[in-house]
Each structure stands twice: as structure tokens, then as C-alpha cells.
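Quick one - first record:
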Amino acid sequence: WGCLKIHIRESSHERGRGCKQLRRNSITPAILSPVRALRSATEMEVRRLPGRRVCTVVLCTVWIFTSFAAKSQTAATAGQWSPIGPPEATVESLDIDPANSRHLIAGTYFGGLYQTYDGGASWTHIDTAFNESPVFAFAFDRSRPSVAYVGTFQGGVFKSLDSGQTWTPADTGLTDLNIQSIAIDPFDSTVIIAVSGTSTFRSTDAGGTWTAIDSAIQNVAGRCVTFDSLTPGSVYLGTLGSGVLVSTDAGVTWNALNQGLGNRTIAALNFNDEANRRLYAATSDGLGFELLPGA
């Protein structure tokens, strides 16, 4: 298992959404324009290592760093990278507090959670019931910044009501506790979709209960999920060997969206909220795709 170090790069771009977490590969981040992150995946100095998340690492790295770097007092000269920690930790997931851009929480591999209130200059460990579990997914609720969710390996979903300081289980109805990806509906944050190794689940009561939606997605295995923050009800699911599925009713019904993509395994999805309105997909075979506007 590889270790991802968090770095900073000067940029004025804003952070994207729907970033899938790092798993297996250790990689030096490439300097890359965030808008071209997946489109240029084959052009970067990245070898196609075993596993399915090479592009995912780059995507997570770029969006994390470009969002934060413009506000950081410790950022290096534009175009350069500098490590910010957390030290000796393998980062699996990370999100920025919507109410405080200098407050970041990182989920780690068998290390629980770490947080920083100074943009990465210093980190502290958050004591939780899942200290020894990999945290593969982390998401703040944009409409209620004090609320956050984590997805853990064999521990299910946990929910925080105090910006990540304390956590309680939120796994009622989950039949697979290995949660790999979580996405919150930006128009109705009571609707959440969680993806595990074997099933995809939907909650309509802010994580209070979960219902498997495998029949709605034709029993394909999900890998990552992201909502479109500008179009109510639109959510995209990356799958194992079935390309991308799309829902226009917040995850109730789904259809394939694979013209030009095919039935590939999707390692990461990221929706660009800027004017060109493109959905980017990173695949397990090292390629990047974009969905053109109006598709």
C-alpha cells in the first residue's frame, strides 16, 4: 500500500467535487491544470501501475492543493509543491470544512482521522471509535458545515454533528460495512449515496437508515459516486466493468451513460462546475474521459 503526501501548489482555481480516494499506488503528484486533470491523464508523468487508481491519485492531489494553496501562508512559489502532512500517515480521503477553509480533515489508512486548523502547518489526531480502521471516504455537508460523514473499512458509516470532532455510527440498513465512496445531495442533504465493495446504498434521512439500491442499478458493482451541484437530482455512479450510470431523480432510477466510454471500470468521477460543464471519468486502464455538455 502506498503513501500519498499532501502538497500545495499556487493556483486560483477552485476545488472540484466527487473526488475518489487513494488506495493502492504511491505516486508523485504531477503539476497539472485542474480543468485538464483527467483529460490529460495519459500525458502526465504517471506510469500505469497495477491497480485501478492511478488517475484517482492525480485528481485528488490536484483538487485538494489548488483549492487550498491560494489561501495558504506556507505555499511555495507558484508552480512548485511542498509537503504539508500529516506526517507518517497514508492519506485515503480528505475534505475541507465549508465554514473554514483552513480546517481540513484527512482520513488515513489504519490511522483514523487527522485534522489541521492552520492549513496543514500542524496536524492533530482525532480520537474515534475507528482509530484503527482505514477511512476510505470523507464528506462535509455543504449545506450544514457542522455535519460530516466518513466511510470506513468494515466499520460502515459514521456521522459527526460538530465538524468532525465526535462521531456516532450511522449504519442502520447497511449490509456491507466496507464503504468506499460517499456523496451528499447538494440540493437536499438528507439524501446521501454510499458505495461499498458489493452494494450501493441510499439514505433519505441524513444517514439515519440506508436502503440498498442494487436492483435499481441492475446489480452492477459501484466504485465511486458524485452529485452535480448545479443540476437538482443529477447524480453519477462509476461502476466496476459497467461504465457510468446516471440518475436524474437523486438516485431512485438509473440509466447507462456510456457512449464513447464503453463498459469500463471507473476509478474516479469529478464534475467540473465551471462554465464548460463537463463530467470527467478516470478508468482503471489508465485513460481519462470527458462527457461533453448536453450529452
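second record:
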Amino acid sequence: HYGWSALRAVRLGQYKLIDAPRPELFDLAADPGETTNLFESRRDVGNRLQRTLRALEAQFARAGAPPTAETIDPETRARLTSLGYVSSFVATETDETVARADPKDNIALFNLMSDARDLGHDDDADTAKMIALLQQVVADDPQVIDAWFSLGNVYYRRGEFSTALGHFSKALALKPDYDLALINMANAYRALGRDDEALAGYEHYLRVDPKNAWVHYQAGEIHLDRGALDRASEYFRQALAIDPKVAAARVALGAVALTQGDAATAEREIRAALGIAADVRLAHFNLGVLLVLTV
């Protein structure tokens, strides 16, 4: 999520190799604290360990299944791209031909990210300071995926949803399989009242991961708002089939039944929601409405 080179390590006997753009070799018997890099002075040992590591990586690669791209028709692909969603959603493979930064060289940026993350844990945090820290990161290294994602989250927190969209889109451009960036981008469209765009994002996500109960619920809410009760109910039931503890989906099914004039089903669903979470305010409200209507 930082866009830097991966770090891989292998140990053989007393020697440990950390493979990176600038490799490190340590003699753990003489230097257990790993303070002296011997890679240049013991290049024969370092090269041998690199060959061992490459062989292990090739073995693991053969054992793993390659990612399979989802099938999307050209019209849908073009629409997703125009909305800022990437048009594929598969695991991002590392391109070994692309030069990536050595994490050792970016400790200062890592510390800036950590400072911004620590501020984010405080509900009363100075969001302007968080933004300044994260903007410094992307100014120094625009490949830091989580910096763009975090900027999107901060602007979303401030209610600046259009700005948040741009940052989530940049995170997705760098890492097309970043599920949280895709979902948060759809949430931002939803907050802006752009439900067509939000639904496109939720459905795009569900084509690849149909087991996310929360995303099913969010898609159902859009259909409910549009009065498409049968389609909404389908999404809510799918959410509950995945996770029976999604109380909000029970409340929503109760609202559907109430709209359809089915008081018995509405009460059953609302009380089921309260059985899952007794503090769901909308469930209490809907139950009150139902009691008034049936008196």
C-alpha cells in the first residue's frame, strides 16, 4: 500500500539476506543485532542466498493460482472508468521490471504517515494538520497509495465528498484491487446524492466479492430509496444470508413490509433487528410507527 519495493528475507545457516533494491546481508552469529551489512564484502554468500530466494519464490508462484479478471461488458467498463472506478478488480501483481523505492530510504515518509494515522484516531483531531502531513507525503512520493486513500478519508470526514472522490480515485489508479478505496468512493458518491454512480461502484465490487454483507445492504438502501422494493429486499436478504447479525438489513426489510402494508412481517423483522442490537434507533422508531398504524 506504499508503492515501495517488497522486502523479502531468507536465512541459511548463520547468514540472513534481506532482498531489496539495496540488499542487506548479516552474519547472525557474529552480529545478532544486524548492524553491519556484509553484502558487498561477502558478495559470494549474498548471491547464493539470492539464488535460493529466487528459487523459493518461483516455487511459491507455481503453487499459487493466477488472479482471474472479472468479465465486464465494454459499456459497463467504459462507464466505470468515466466515474473514476478502475475497470478491473483483480489482485495487483508486482511488476519486477518497475523500479521501486527501497523502504529504507523512505523512513521519513513512513513517519509522516504514522503521525497522520495517529491523529486520525482522535475524533477531535486537527484535520488540517492531517491533510498537511499527507500532502507532504504525496508531494515527495506520489506512489504512496495509502496516502491518497487517507486523504480521501480525511476529506470525507470533513464532508468534502467531491474532493474525497478524487483522492480515492488516485488510490485505485495505483492499486486497482484496493477494496476499501472502491467502497469509500461509492460511499462518497452516495453522500453527494449521486446514487447511480454509488450503485455502479457497489455492484462492481460485488461482482468480485459477493460475500460482503455490508455492500449488499448499501446497494439495497439505494433501491429502497427509489421505491424498487423487490430489488431492495433481494439485496437485504442476501446481506442477511451472509451475515445474520446485520440488524440494519432487518430494519430495512421491516420498512419494505410496512410500505407494502404487511404489518405482521414488518413487526417480525423489526423485532428481529432489536434482538440483534437493542439500540438501533430506527428500529424503535419504525416499531412506534407500526403500533400507531395498527391501533
